[in-house]
Structures are given as C-alpha cells and as structure tokens.
Design a protein that fits this description.
mainly beta; lipopolysaccharide transport protein A fold; 13-stranded antiparallel sheet; disordered C terminus; cell outer membrane
C-alpha cells in the first residue's frame, strides 16, 4: 500500500492497521518505538519490511537515519539505506553512499563513507567500513585524520584498521601523509582513541646526552577506578641502564587523598673521583660510589574518626646526586614538585637540599583548641650514603597544643596559650650537640582598648621551659635537667585614615585611599645559651627590646559592573623601620648581631605592588642599610599577564651579605663564605604571527657574570597539529628539542645534546 503524501508512522500503528501479527513490528518491552518519515511509505507483509522513498527519516532513540531510500526489516530491526545517507548516533555522524545498520546491535556496513567522531574531531574515511558495535569500527583500507576538509594537512592511511573509541586503534602498512605527500611509513601502528581517563600508553620522550646516552622514557597511564590511577614509566638509558618507576594517586574525598611515587635504577656508572668517571658527578658534591639508586616520596591527607586528621610526608632518596640527575621528565623532580603542590597543596625540599623531611602527624582542630602529635625524621642523605656520623636533629615525637585568642568571661581581658613537649634525638652526639626532652608552655594575656581613633593592643606572657638533656659527656654543663621562665611583652598601637574620591574615569568610578600606621613595641628577656640548652625557635631566645614603625598604604579602585562592582588594588605599599634598643645599649661586641659593629637601626624595609591596569603588575621589595649606605636586598619584577599565565616577565633578585661591606670598611680580608647573590630572570611568550608563538627564557648570574640558562622556542599551531622547536643552553647541558603533535593522536618529541 503506497501513500502519495508525506506522513509519520509509528511502527506499532502501522502493524495494527496493515497486519494481523503485531509481534513482528511492535516494539517489545524495553524497546523504544521506531519512527519513519518519508514522502511515501509501503509495507510488504510477506517480506516483513517497510520501504520508504524520498526524504526518508528514521529515528530510534538517539539514532537518526536520513537517506533517499530505506528498507526497514521488522524482524531484526535492520535498515538498508541508499543515496545521500546520513546516520547520526548522539554526536557521531556517518555519511555514505549506502549503509546497512542494525538498530539493536549498533552494527552495520558503510560503503564509500565517512565516520566523524565529534568528541575527538576524528574523521575515518574508507570504501567499506564495518561498524561492529557502538564504539568499534573496522576497515580493509581507510584514511584517518583529525583535520577538517577534503584535503587534510595530515592523514594516516593503511590497511586492516581496527578502531575502538575510548580505546585504541591498530593498523597495518601505515603511511603518514602531510599535504598528501608520504613522509613516514611503519608496518604496524597502535594509537589512542580516548576521550575519558583510561589505561593506555602516553607519548614517549626521546633524547640524547653525554651523561645518559640515548634516553627513552615511555609512560603508561593506568586507571584503577573513578578515584584512583597510576602512571608507570620505564626509562632506558644506553649509558646508565633502565630506570623504572610508578606514581600512584587516589582521592577518597577532599580531605582524604594522596600521591606516592617510587623508582629505582641499577646504575652502570659511579662517581669515585677518578678522571674516567668525572662526567657522572657534580661540582661541590661528594663522591657517589653506589650503583643501587632510588627515590621514594609521597604525601597523604587522611580524615579520621572524631574530627581528627592525619598527614604524611615521605622523601627518601639514595644519594645526594639523584635528584639533580633526574630533574626533568616523567618521574623527575620538577614533575614531582608540581604534582605535590597542585594535588596536595604542599611541596618538597629543593633538589639541591641534602636533608629531606619525613613527617607523620595527627591533629584535631576545634573553634578553641588545636592539638597535634607528630614525628619528624630529617634524613641527612650525605651522612647516610657516605656512612659518616649523623648528628641531624630529629623530633620523635612532638606534641603541640594551642588555644586561640579568646575573651575571659565578661572581663576586658583575652587569653591565648601554646605549649608542647618534644623528644629530640640524634644518632650521633658530639661535645656541642646533644639531645633530650623539652616541655614548654606560653600563656599570654591581652587587654585591647581604644583611645580616640587609636587602637591599643598590649599583651604579656611568660614562657616556661623544662629540659632533660643527654650529652656525650655526662660532665657537660647541659647534662641533666634544667628549667627557666622567660617573660615577654608586646604592644601594638594603630589607627587608620581613608578617603574616597569620585574619579568618573574609564578605569574607575571611585577610588579609596587607606593609610594605616602601626607602632609596635617588643620586649623579651634573653635566654643565655651558655647556661641553658637550645634546640629550635622555641628556646633560641636572643632577647628583644625594640620599637617598629610600620605604614601601610592601599589605593583601591571601584568600577560598577553589570551586576556587581569590580574592585582592584591599584597600589599597595608598606614601609617599616625598627630601632633595636637592646643593641643600642649593648657594650659587648660579641652580643652585637654581626659581632663587629653596633647597628641599632635595623635595615629600612619597603614593599610595593603596582597594578595600574588589568594583567600588568610591578612588584618590589627591598632593605636598605643605614650603616653600609646600600641596598642589602632588592627583589623587583614586571609581569604582563596573570600570575598563572605570564606573557612577559622580568625579575631581578639581589642580596648583599652585610659582612661583605663591613669587612671592606674595616679592612678585613674578603671571605669566600659571603652569601651574596645577584640574578636576572626574563621570560617572554607571545604570538608573533598568526599561529606562531615565540617562547624565550633567560637567566643570568650577575654576581658571577655568567649565563645560567638561555632558551628560545617557536611553536606553529594548526587546527589539527602543532610543530615546535626549542634551543636551550644551561650550565649543565645544551639541547635542541624538536616536537610534532597530531591533535587527537598524541605526539612525539626529541632532544639532542648540541655539544
């Protein structure tokens, strides 16, 4: 029966009208109805098919089929489509001359067709394509690309393709073509076709250097569920051996998460101080004779019952050179530090530090109190690896309790309290280095009040200290028990001025200038370290008697937005000056801070942040010595962009050791132990042409008049591929890096030692 006009039929209605066997066409329980729209529709009951002609539209749930002619088989739900065929399943689209498609099994055959997978912008073209399920495609001959258009910038052609979305694609006799020209051939190719987190190989890294030889790193990403994953990597170095490692991450909740890594290497090279092994050590570092090398590190946060929280920090490395040797790449120090900071919110010691912190703590915080029990092991890598005496101070365990500042009933007084008990331990004691237990408590009383426009906040406290000391020599003055009480007093006097200006300018409607001067007096009794033991800042009390004047100035703009006003601190400035009365009255040169000259006026401090327009910052902080008449420290930076994405930045950091100038003025010979530094760092990242980005880095040691790092890179980015090259020259190495990335299919990069 043929109808000459356009209409819409549900198959259920068609069967009721034209057949007496509804099971052959009516959707069964759980099936969605199939809807057919066409210029004409005929039903052949004998063959069990519907034949649709002209502007045919077949829909079955999320599947839509458009064609000039469609034959629909009721029994198995298969549609045979011809002429301008377009099959859409969610966001994936098939266009072809003919398509045979089974609605239920999601399988079919595509002739002279193209499959477009939108989630990866992946185009698959072939003479005959087989759709084997919802996400799998196979073909004898096919072309694959992520570039749009009939003439893609790059494409992969080959035979026996088998592609699974959210999985991998495989192919034989594969040719990579750019602009239609063959450039790379491989007899077999495995490539990712992934959208979500899923187990699979990541892009390999390949390089070469004189220290490692050919250097290949192959990472493998492994999913272990929605809240856990791992990255396993193998790093083969022709000169050193194979380094293997794994990084494990989990997140049970925002308060229970962790990241742990372990790696190891049986190194073929050592640094024993001989000339033939000189390339495998570092200047200023002890010899390294071990071949078994490793690094274990990790951090974890864990929520515990009763409102308690636990934190773990682990950092254990085989030798002092390991983190310098493996600073870059997967599993390297830089990647570990970035992961720790991003994932856990705290970092690890610098790669040059030879004392690594390992800590376990359990704490509980309420509105009034905080209590923490911790154990800290500071691992001296050099002492352990060189098997020498180790006098590093450990805290096993340490208990701290603090009460936040709070009112004492209805009185005008407030109170706070901190205290704790620590067991200090050293593996090896010396005549001047001891261990033992220490307990302390510091209650403080406050009485804030106002006098006119001034706020006054005085406080007084007494620090009680108790020690039980173990020494190498039992006759030592520090051996045994000790106790003392150290009083302290502080007063802050501050006020605030502000004025609001109507600017009516393009950059702001109003501006507010705020000035806050603060006068602080600090006094604390000195603890004689020849009479009492000292371990850390709790008992290292040099005494205080000083006055500090500080001035804060903030200029804030207000611009009315569409819904809410936008505020921006245009200018923030701070200056401060301290007069050390204790040093001014001290007559014993050995008690002066530098041991040579009396300097009661501390260095003048200034800090400035200038943000005149969005994404433009100037920052400066520095200290000026009244006695050396020079800057002791100065740090300045100009930043264009945001703190996260800096388009251009240049910074200068300088530190002048005060003893250097004092020795010069007193005619004392210069020392090699001065801690003076002077460095310049610049970075530029900008689009110099359409799709071409320039990336430059420069770092120079102005103190030693030598360049630390110079690099320049160019990146060309197309819609479906990117090409980059980079030259880098540093004090440790010189490299040329080249890389290609095919969008959607990963990338490959190489680095070469230019020396």
């Amino acid at each position: 029966m043929v109808f000459p006009h356009r209409f819409t039929w549900f198959l259920l209605l068609s069967i009721l009208l034209f057949t007496v066997t509804p099971a052959s066409a009516a959707p069964t329980s759980g099936q969605s109805p199939v809807n057919i729209t066409a210029d004409s529709l005929a039903h052949d009951a004998a063959k069990g098919v519907y034949i649709a002609e002209g502007n045919v539209l077949v829909t079955d749930g999320a599947v839509t089929l458009v064609a000039d002619h469609v034959t629909y088989h009721i029994q198995d739900g298969t549609a045979e489509a011809e002429g301008n065929v377009r099959l859409t399943s969610e966001e994936d689209v098939v266009t072809a001359d003919t398509v045979t498609y089974a609605m239920e099994s999601k399988e079919g055959t595509i002739t002279n067709g193209t499959v477009f997978i939108k989630s990866r912008n992946l185009w698959i073209r072939g003479e005959t394509l087989e759709k084997r399920g919802e996400n799998r495609y196979t073909a004898e001959r096919v072309t694959v690309t992520t570039c749009d258009g009939e003439n893609p910038d790059w494409a992969i052609t080959g035979r026996k393709f088998d592609i699974t979305v959210e999985g991998y694609g495989t192919a034989h006799h594969v040719m990579l073509k750019t602009a239609g020209v063959p450039v790379v051939y491989t007899p077999f190719l495995l490539f990712p076709v992934k959208i979500k987190r899923q187990t699979g190989l990541l892009a390999p890294l390949v390089g070469y250097s004189s220290r490692k030889g050919l250097d290949i790193i192959q990472p493998l990403f492994v999913t272990l569920g929605d809240s856990m994953d791992a990255t396993v990597y193998a790093n083969h170095m022709t000169e050193r051996g194979t380094r293997g490692g794994v990084e494990f991450r989990y997140m049970a909740s925002a308060l229970s998460k962790g990241i742990f890594s372990a790696e190891g290497l049986n190194d073929r090279k050592i640094d024993d101080g001989t000339s033939e092994n000189s390339d495998y050590g570092y200047d200023g570092s002890p010899d390294r004779t071990n071949t078994d090398r490793y690094w274990f590190r990790g951090k974890a946060d864990q929520e515990l019952p009763g409102g308690f929280k636990a934190k773990l920090d682990l950092d254990w490395v085989s030798d002092q050179d390991y983190l310098r040797e493996f600073k870059d790449g997967p599993g390297g120090f830089d990647a570990t530090q970035d992961d720790m900071e991003e994932y856990m919110g705290r970092t690890i010691e610098d790669h040059t530090d030879t004392v690594r912190t390992n800590k376990l703590s359990v704490s509980k915080t309420t509105n009034a109190f905080t209590a923490s029990l911790s154990g800290i092991w500071n691992d001296d890598v050099v002492a352990r690896s060189q098997d020498t005496e180790d006098s590093t101070l450990q805290q096993l365990p340490s208990l701290t309790v603090s009460q936040s500042r709070s009112a004492l009933g209805t009185s005008p007084f407030q109170m706070s309290m901190t205290g704790g008990a620590t067991s200090f331990y050293r593996q090896d004691l010396t005549s001047s280095l001891y261990d033992g237990e220490r307990t302390y408590i510091l209650p403080k009383v406050y009485m804030p009040f106002k006098v006119g426009a001034f706020s006054v906040d005085p406080s007084a406290g007494v620090r009680g200290l108790w020690w039980d000391i173990d020494t190498e020599d039992s006759a030592s003055a520090f051996s045994g028990t000790h106790s003392t009480a150290v009083p302290e007093f502080t007063t802050d006097i501050s006020t605030e001025f502000y004025k609001i200006f109507n600017t009516d300018a393009d950059w702001a409607d109003k501006a507010r200038h705020r000035l806050k001067p603060t006068l602080t007096y600090d006094w604390q009794e000195r603890l004689d370290d020849t009479e009492y033991p000292t371990f850390d800042t709790v008992d290292e009390l040099d005494g205080k008697n000083q006055i500090t004047l500080k001035l804060d100035s903030i200029l804030t703009s207000k611009k009315n937005g569409e819904s809410l006003p936008v505020y921006r601190d245009l200018l923030t400035a701070t200056i401060s000056q301290t007069w050390d009365i204790q040093e001014d009255r001290e007559t014993d040169p050995s008690q002066w801070r530098n041991g040579l000259t009396k300097e009661p006026f501390r260095p003048f401090y200034a800090e400035l942040i200038f943000n005149p327009v969005m994404n433009l910052y100037f920052k400066f902080d520095g200290t000026w010595s009244w006695y050396e008449s020079e800057m002791l420290t100065q740090n300045s930076a100009l930043i264009l962009g945001t703190e996260e994405t800096k388009l251009f930045s240049i910074s200068h950091r300088k530190k002048r050791d005060p003893l250097e100038s004092i020795h010069e003025s007193l005619g004392i010979p210069a020392s090699s132990s001065y801690e003076s530094t002077d460095s310049l760092v610049a970075r530029l990242k900008m689009d110099i042409f359409d799709r071409i980005t320039l990336d430059c880095d420069y770092e120079r040691d102005l103190e030693e008049s030598e360049d630390i790092k110079k690099s320049v890179g160019l990146t060309y980015t197309s819609s479906c591929w990117a090409l980059f090259t980079r030259y880098e020259d540093s004090t440790d190495d010189t490299k040329i890096v080249f890389g290609v990335e095919l969008t959607g299919l990963g990338g490959f990069d190489s680095s070469y030692d230019a020396n």
